[in-house]
Amino acid sequence: MDEAYDVGLGNIDFVLRKKADSDFVSFWDDEAKNLSWFSYWEKTLDWQPPFAKWFVGGTINASFNALDVHQKTKSSKPAILWEGENGESRIITYGEMFLQVKKFSNVLKSLGVKKGDRVTIYLPMVPELPIAMLACARIGAIHAVIFSGFSAASIKDRISDSHSKVVVTANGGYRRGKIVKLKEVIDEAIKDVDFVEHVVVLKRTENEISTSSKDRLWDDLMNNVPDSCDAEKLDSTHPLYILYTSGTTGKPKGVLHGTGGYLTHLYSTFKWAFDIKDSDVFFCTADIGWVTGHSYVVYAPLLHGATQVMYEGAPDFPDASRIWEILQKYHVTIFYTTPTALRMFMKFGNNIPNSFDLSSLRLLGTVGEPINPEVWKWYFKTIGNEKCPIIDTWWQTETGGMLISPLPGLETMPLKPGSGTLPIPGVRISVVDENGDEVPPNTKGYLVIKNPWPGMLLTLWGDDEKYKTVYWSKYKNCYYPGDYALKDDDGYLWLLGRADDVLKVAGHRIGTAELESCIVSHSDVAESAVCGITDEIKGEVIIAFVVLKEGISDTEILKKEIFDKIRNDIGAIATPKQIYFVSKLPKTRSGKIMRRLLKRIANNEKIGDVSTLEDGTAVTEIQNAFDDIQKSIKRNSC
Ligand code: ATP
Ligand code: MG
Questions:
Q1: Which distant-in-sequence residues (6+ apart) come within 8 Å of 440 by Cβ?
Q2: pTM confidence score
Q3: Cα(248) to centroid(ligand 2), Å
Q4: Model confidence over 106-125: pLDDT tens digits?
Q5: Fewer Cβ neighbours under 10 Å: the N or C end of the chain?
Q6: Which of 323-332, 563-572, 606-615 has the lowest mean pLDDT?
Q7: How far is the CA of 382 from the centre of ligand 1 (A)?
Q8: What confidence score (pLDDT) does residue 4 get?
Q9: Alpha-carbon distance 16 to 130, whole Å?
Q10: How many C-beta atoms lie closer than 10 Å to residue 632's C-beta?
Q11: Which ligand minimizes its atom distance to the CA of 295?
């Protein structure tokens, strides 16, 4: 394994961990008391595998915990420092946010929205997006946010699945300097859907919209409602939202989250992982359309009364300095982003970040994919100036919040580039083989979670059976996340990629993350994706796709260097049959590499659900590369 990075950190909190391990239920019971409840629960956990109910009998409200509780002390504190892509900016205080949320709650009520009804929200990254979400939460409606990059067909699927009677959208949003006409997309999506009764339209851009009898303007509605609205006293298990997964491994799943357990999980993990203080300025680059945005842009920072930056546009628009400019302008102290974004920033070289004052930073986070050790080191050195711990957080839409992460707000420990370190307290995680038996240290296997946790999904929306099959059927009473991992001698966890993507070459199992990280550690390489294609003799042979850094040419010498690097660092067994240089990789709209697509194309299979694919031209390029591979295989066999 890689060297340990000691950034002045001390010891693991064994006392707290022991307490959490010996009785995770009473541990979470204590944590839940950090929130404001209308009434306490009778039972901390009702566990009828695989369904968990947390804080049963307790009543709570997410919007109340995000806003009402701060009004006495923080009403003039900025909740959101908003930066528009076109250079506009706005400051929304806790007081202002409170007022807007109460008013929009009354708007929803005036449109007939009741407790338990679903409301679809398709908005750009503007403050009205969290305002609309919190208004739903305030009256007990279930929000179903759809990332504003999705097409009409994808929206139609999701609206039909959730049966929303109200849709909240905008006339447009800015993306890479262009106006995306969101209302037009919604019109197309709902043209044959009869159960949508109202479409609320926020005016964000200058473009005109055509209106129908269903359409109502946000501003008109807001001008005609009272500004007081008490938060509903909701059961702890009341559904807060439906959110569809990224679709990296297949058709997106409609994850349903509850209230009391979910909020407890977020409150505690935000405090532990990001050590949040009143003076901090937090900045998470995730779009609210994904779970990271729900949990760690909307709910967790607001529960803590924190100040955060919210940015509307693409991280590299109008140029590659945009994000660093924002960090400098707002004196950001905690920055949370993805390996994909970091690999992109790295591709543009060090001069850009080096020309900004990033000295306000004290913690750096990452989420979404395994972070290649090379990328981790770059983040640590170039962005954090070797002073900021890297908080590599592993979790999923389904887990609601972080489950594996360094926790500098709780305890301190040396970090290892590429490892998320330990599970959070109160969560038992193992690495097991096909039979469910724990594998010895340093052996690859499947990650499993052995007890329920408060942020755990309630179920998949309208599909308990699928919920049982996808997560709970591989191992008895253990949650199966579908990821491949390894535990080292210190008990640190290393995520090695999706279990479905594991390469099986001549009986050896190789994680995609290991091999890709090795390729990315070549100084000329920006990104890589590997996949296996069926081979009669070896079972599978490996094909590697490589994107080079800006200004690097794809030569045979470079290809040989990469081959040699793999042989040296991992071994001959992991040597790809072919290395292909491409200009981009197929990714989900949340920025993750879609290896299942590569694999399907490689094996001449149908490519399946691609509703979350970001850019179709990446697929064409890969398809052409595979045509070449097929031809060369045929040539070799002649
Ligand atoms: P789908 O479930 O539809 O295929 P998805 O799994 O990409 O999509 P998310 O819930 O957004 O949807 O992503 C969770 C997954 O992201 C995890 O299962 C894991 O594979 C990966 N992941 C997240 N954080 C990390 C991390 N820090 N290190 C390694 N992998 C991570
Ligand atoms: Mg998943």
A1: none
A2: 0.94
A3: 7
A4: 999 999 999 999 999 999 99
A5: C
A6: 606-615
A7: 26
A8: 53
A9: 34
A10: 12
A11: 1
